[in-house]
Amino acid sequence: MRPLTPKRVAWICLGLGLVLFGAAVISLRIGAYPISVVDIVKTLFSGILGRWDSIPTEHRSIVFDVRLPRILLAVLVGASLSTAGSGFQALLRNPLADPYVLGVSSGAALGAIIALIAAPHVPGAVQLAAFGGAAATTAAVYFLGRRGGQLDSATLLLAGIVAASFLSAIIMFLMTTLSGRDLRGMAFWLMGDLASTLPTNPLPWFEALFFVFVVAAGAIYATSSDLNLILTGEQEARHLGVNVHRVKLVVYIAASVLTGLAVSVSGTIGYVGLLVPHVMRMLFGTDYRLLIPTSAIGGAILVLLADTLARSIVSPTELPVGAMTALAGAPVFIYLMRRRMR
Amino acid sequence: MEFVTILMQALRSPIAAVLFSALIIRAAPTFAAQNATRAVRDEVGRAITVPAEVKRIVSLAPNLTETVYALGLEDLLVGDTNFCDTPEAAKSKPHVGDPQNPNIEAVVALHPDLVLATTSINRPETADALKRLGIPVYTTDPHTVRAMLDSTSHIAEMMGAAQQGEILVGKLQQRLDALHARLSDRPMVHVLFIVWLDPLQSIGQGTFIADALRWAGAESAITSDQPWPHLSIEEVVRVQPDYIVFAENHLGATTDELADLRVRPVWRDLDAVETGHVLNISEEIERPSPGLVGVIEQLARDVHPEAFSAAKGLPVVSSSEKLATLTGCAEGFTTCAR
């Protein structure tokens, strides 16, 4: 195993970044509206230069209001979920931890739905409520998952499953109090969906979301050396001067923020936080200093490709992206699990 | 042998006598009623046995409740659902729960001799459960506006009011024919019917709503085979509908859909939004009931105003208004078309 240098991290991230760029180009090209590559490039340049005279309104609409925002959203959600996943895996010292499996996504969804019912037009209310739901669920699952003061792997996963089904029951109850047609929209959103219409002025909204992502993901990244030590054993880490309690608190809050952020804009997209860190571990090793950035970019690639598929395979009908990630994620995860066991 | 003696004694006791006579008295009218029944098939092909004279009915769907009121048979209606809101009086009938999941015991407690259900909102399991309890369920299955008229006739017939049914259906058919004649030389306008805005969901060509739209001279711009397709917004930009049509009461509905769409990215650049061709019609467009005809007429007037100009005379408008008040269908009708 080669030693991990900042240079190696940079090269690997650059390589993955190029893959992500390629995925974005493909995604920009595909859609129900027929528009040629030449027209896309023309529209992009006109947009950058701010000269709209020669560009049809429809092209501007498709490129700048439909496809680019959706690509950004997929990147944001994918990166958030897999960073949160790698954070939860370190925090709970369990490779099967993931916002979806632990019920944290369901908690965020419940918070978001309550906000959608109670305060549908208050800006930021859905995001805050989703974060609150995620944080409360993480705490509940954490305490339920302990046995004799120790965090027990199997108990923890069971606690997550129970929390998820309990929260789903509350969500079902809330949804049945809405009328039948409202149910359809909510059900689609619950499966994970990136098609939501953007706010009137999307730029500051995107800036705010990316700012929150950078802060939360940065916080987890800042603890990566400590996480490496904690993963070898909490006692040992403590002896080496790591403030285990504080590191865990930071990761816990940051991972909950990231989950709440992703769920509030896209519903519950499953398996990303589980699948991507696993693949990255297999490719690049278990060092968290490399695992966190590669997981973030890998998650962005996965969700972007899944969403591109979701909106193109039965075009012009759209599938929920969460169904795509689960379809792809569950079998791959089973394969990974069986390989580990061998 | 001792057991038999005790039993004989028990049977001779006054209490047993009372119980027995009570059983016989209760059973007697049942036998009498069974003589006057008829066997029919409902619209989904179930064989049911209905008393010749139906006196107590329970409706399990809003459109059926509305049909019963339109026929003037509301006195026979002893129960409906929490969703039955049209006409206003339907809200004060005893409720048996939601259409998808009615409380079977509540239905039985109302002693109906006929229950009305419909495929679009009720589940077949409900009809099965009631059938096992000896309560006949007539299920309607209309997929077009014409089939809705047939269902109305069937319901009238089941309730022993074939004549009322004939009159009502005749009037409705007349209005539809008049509308058809008026719009015969008009090209179809292309509309995007919004079931759900965010995420975007519209209707397929095979739905009841699509058929109702066609009667109004409006064609759904979406050519999907699925009943409720989730659409890419890109498809809307591609087809550029002439009108965008909302039905009332969808979640997140603001008072003014047009103002909302004018500030939404992508939507604000659509031709229909720029020209203000955004309509909000009654959610009765989704209900296979007599009130639907009034909604169709209103929509036709909104999307084909030139066909209703004064030069063309006003017979449809006047007759529709008369019947609209009868069925209470044109209430709460709003439009934001300029």
Question: Can you characterise this structure?
Answer:
- The complex is a heterodimer of chains A (about 350) and B (about 350).
- By secondary structure, chain A is mainly alpha-helical.
- Chain A is built from 14 helices and 2 strands.
- Chain A is globular and about 70 Å long.
- Helices cover about 40% and strands about 15% of the residues of chain B.
- In chain B, strands 4-3-5-6 form a 4-stranded parallel sheet. In chain B, strands 8-7-9-10 form a 4-stranded parallel sheet. A two-stranded antiparallel sheet of chain B has the order 1-2.
- In chain B, α8 (about 210-215) links the parallel β7 and β8.
- Chain B folds into 2 domains: about 35-140, 3-Layer(aba) Sandwich (Rossmann fold), CATH 3.40.50.1980; about 185-325, Rossmann fold, CATH 3.40.50.1980.
- Chain B is of the alpha/beta class and about 350 residues long.
- The interface between A and B is medium-sized, with 36 and 33 residues.
